[in-house]
Amino acid sequence: MERIDIHPTHEINGRKLRCGQPFPFGAMLVPGGVNFAIYSSHASSCTLVLFNKKEPQPFAEIPFPEAFRIGNVFCMTVFDLDYENLEYGYRMDGPNNFQAGHWFDTSKILLDPYAKIVSGRDVWGVQPDWNDIYQHRGRISFDDFDWQDDRPLDIPLEDMIIYEMHARGFTKDESARIKDSHRGTFAGIRDKISYLQELGVNTIELMPIFEFDEFENSRRHPETGELLLNYWGYSTVNFFAPKAGYAATGKFGMQTDELKTLVKELHKVGIAVILDVVFNHTAEGNERGPTISFRGIDNKTYYMLTPEGYYFNFSGTGNTLNCNNPIVRGMVLDCLRYWTAEFHIDGFRFDLASILGRDPWGFPLANPPLLETLAFDPILARSKLIAEAWDAGGLYQVGSFPNYGRWAEWNGKYRDSVRKFIKGDLGLVGEMAQRIQGSPDLYQAAGRPPSTSINFITAHDGFTLADLVSYNGKHNEANGEHNNDGANDNYSWNCGIEGPTDNIYIQALRHKLMRNAMAILMVSQGVPMILMGDEFGRTQYGNNNTYCHDSPLNWLNWNLLEKEKDWFRFVQYCIAFRHAHPVFRNAEHFQNCDYLGTGYPDISWHGVQAWHADWSATSRVLAFMLCGQHAKGGKVKDNQIYVAMNMHHESLWFNLPEPPLGQAWYVFANTGAKPPEDIHWPGSEPRLDSQSGLLVGDRSLVILLAK
Amino acid sequence: MAFTIEAEVLGDLGKVTLIGELDGSTAPLFKEKIEEIAKAEIKRLVLLMAELEYMSSAGLRVLIFAKQKMGTSVNIYIVGAQEMVQDTIDQTGLHQSFYLVDAFDFTT
To answer: Where is the STAS domain (chain B) (predicted)?
Structure first.
C-alpha cells in the first residue's frame, strides 16, 4: 500500500504542495519533495523563495497558505524540486516598529536559521556580488556520509592535550608544502594529520568553522592599504552550516563531506575534534548591520533588546543572542545535537559563554536553563563542554561558571599566574601551587574535578608564546585601530630588547622561558591547551589581536619547524612525557596527604631544602613531588616525579627528597641545559650524577623521575 | 557538454563508461545503470572516467549508492579519472571506498 502523504494536495502557480511537517525545523528531503519548516512568533505571513543555484532572480515564490501554519511554524512540502541545484530563502511579513523590536520587511530574502549548507561565500576571499538580492543562500544537504563505524572518541577530558588551530591559517602558507588546492582548507588539515601525530596532541580545537562572512566589516588599512577581513570568524551567519570557504570542495557545495572526512580521518588516529562555537551574537551586528536571517524572521525572539528597541551588546560586537529564550535555547540545542550526531564532533568550546547564562534583560541567572539543558542532554552526554567563562559585558565567572558537574572552563587565572611566575614576578608561589594542582582553589569546593581547568598560557586571543617572551607591549598598528584594540594586561617580558634581536644571550633566555612555560603546562593537573605554531615559535610580531589579517602574519610558517627544531623537540618530548605519566592526569584533586600508606603524600612541596617550600612573598622558587603510587587515585602505578622551578635570576642548589627505596633519580628535562641535553625521550632519561641534590640554573626548571 | 553513459556486464565484471558532465540532471541515468548492473552477480565494477569532465555532489552520491548497493564483496575501480574529478573524490574522502587507478586490464 503506497503512502498517501507523498501526494500533493494543493497547487499554487503550478507548484504542487501539501501541508508540511512542522518538525524538524529547516529543509528536509521527504519522498517526492522537500519539507520546509520555519518558526516565527510575530510574522503575519511567510513566502518561500526558490532560486536555481547562483541565479540572480528567484524562479518561484510560494506564499504559505494559512492552513500551512501550525502554531507559529510555517510548514510546507513542495514536490518535484531539483534539490541539488536549489537555493532557498524566505520573505516574512509583519510589523515594522523599531521600538517594539519588530523588523519585518518583505523586500528582504532571509536565510533559514536551520539551513545545513549556505552558499554565497563559496571560495574564501572572492569578492561577492554586492548587488545580489540574496547574499547568504540556504541549500539542502544530504545525510548520507559513509561513517563506517566511526563515532566520537570519548577520550577522558583529563587525558586530552588540546591544540587550538585556525582551519585556514594552519595550512594556507606555501611553506605547508601540500597541494595548492588544499591549502587553507579542511582537506589541508587532513594532509597534516601525520604532523599532529608526530607532535603528539590528541585533540584539535578548531576556531569558528560555522558559516561566517569574511567580508563582514572588511576595510582597507588607512596607511598600508591592506584589505582587512573577518579572518578569525567569531561572527556567525548560520549555526548549522560549515564554512564553505574552508573547504577545497566549497565551490561544489560539498563542504559537509570534506569536513566529515577530516573528522573521520582524525578519529582513526585517535585525535578528537572540538569546535569553538559562537552563540553569544550573530553577524547581523547592531542597528546598522545587515539583515541576513534572525532579524527579519523574529528579531524580538532571537535578540536581547533594550526597552527602546536597541540591541544589548554584551558580546562587544553589536548584538547579543537571546540564549535563554526557549526558542533560541532550542535552536542551540538542535545545533549542538546536529554537530554531535551528524559530524561526530567530540566537544565544544563556547565563546564568551557567560552570556549564555544571562536572562533576556542581561541579568546573570543562578540556574541558566540553557547551560542546564546542555549539561543534561542525552545526545551531548559524552561531549566535552568548555566555557570561556567571561563576557564583554563584565561578567567574569572563572571558578563560578554554572556547571552541573559537566562544564569545564578556559582558566584565565592559570594563564596569568604562569605568565607572571615565569617572568620572575614575586608573590606567585602560593598561586602557582594551586594552578599546578588543577586550581583546587577555584574548583574543589564545588566538587569540580581538576579537568575543569583548561590550562593554557597562550591562545588565539593574545600573544603567541614566542611573542610573550619578545615583547613588553602589544604592537597592533597593523589592525588600523591606532593600537587601541587588544588586551593590555599581557604579563609579558621581552628579555631586554623589544622584538626580534640577533643577541644570542637574549635569544637563549627567551627559549629558556618558553621551555619553562611549556614544561609547567605539561606537568600541571587539568587539561593543557597549546596554540597552533607555538611548538615551533610562531610570531605575530607583537600583535596580540590578529583577528583581521588574512596574511602571513596569521598563516603558520612551516619553515620555522626546521629553524626551531630543538624547541619543537622539547615540546614534542614534553607532550610524550605527559602521555607516558598518568600521575599528571588525575581525575580527582590531590588530598595533600598519604591516603594510600605509600610513605609519600600524593603531592608534596619543596624548595631549595627538601620538604621545605618557601611560601614567602619574596620567593621565586617552588618544587613539588608527585607520588606515582597515587596516580589516578592509586588505580595505576607510575613513577615518582620531582619538579624544581627556579624563577630567580641566579642559580640555586636544590636538596632533593629521597626517591623510593631502591630507586634513583633520572633527569627528564632541564631547561637550563643546552639542547640536546635539555630534554630526553621518555624512557631513556639519564641518571642524575648526585642523588642528594642538583644545581638548578637561573630562570630554569628541572624535571626528575625516580626509577 | 552532454552526458552519455554505456554499461555492460562481461561475466563477473560490470563495465560502465561515463562521458561528459555528471551533475544533478544526469546522475539519475548513472544510478539507473548501477541498479541494472547490480541485478547481475558481479564481483568487480569498473567505472571508466577518462572522458568525464565534471562530477557534482549528485554524481558522488551515486558512487556512494553504488558502493552500498553492491556490498563489500564487490570491488569498485575508478579508472583514469581526470584531476578535477579525482580531487573531488579525494577531498570528500571517497577515495578510501574505491580503487582509483590509471588503467584497468580487462584480460585479468
So the answer is: 3-108
Query: Contact, A211 vs A238, CB < 8 A?
Result: yes
Query: In this structure, what C-alpha cell is assigned to residue A633?
Result: 587515585
pTM equals: 0.94
Sort out which chain A residues have CB atoms less than 8 A from B97's CB and list them.
146
Closest residue of chain A to B93, computed from CA coordinates: A261
Taking alpha carbons only, the member of A585, A564, A434 closest to residue A510 is: A564
A66 touches A53 (CB < 8 A): no
Smallest CA–CA distance from B54 into chain A, residue: A252
Q: What are the residue ranges of helices labelled H in A324-457?
A: 326-343, 369-376, 412-422, 429-436, 440-443
A84 CB within 8 Å of a chain B CB: yes
pLDDT of B58-100, one tens digit each?
888 889 889 888 888 899 999 999 988 888 888 887 888 899 9
C-alpha distances in Å from residue A670, one per residue of A281, A442, A515, A691: 46, 30, 9, 15
Give contacts of B25 with chain A, Cβ < 8 Å: 82
ipTM of the complex: 0.78
Using an 8 Å CB-CB cutoff, list chain B residues near A146: 64, 67-68, 94, 97
Residue B22 has a CB neighbour count (10 Å cut-off) of 25
Compute the distance between CA of residue B37 and CA of residue B52 in angstroms, rounded to an integer. 20
Does the CB of A70 have a partner CB in chain B at under 8 Å? no
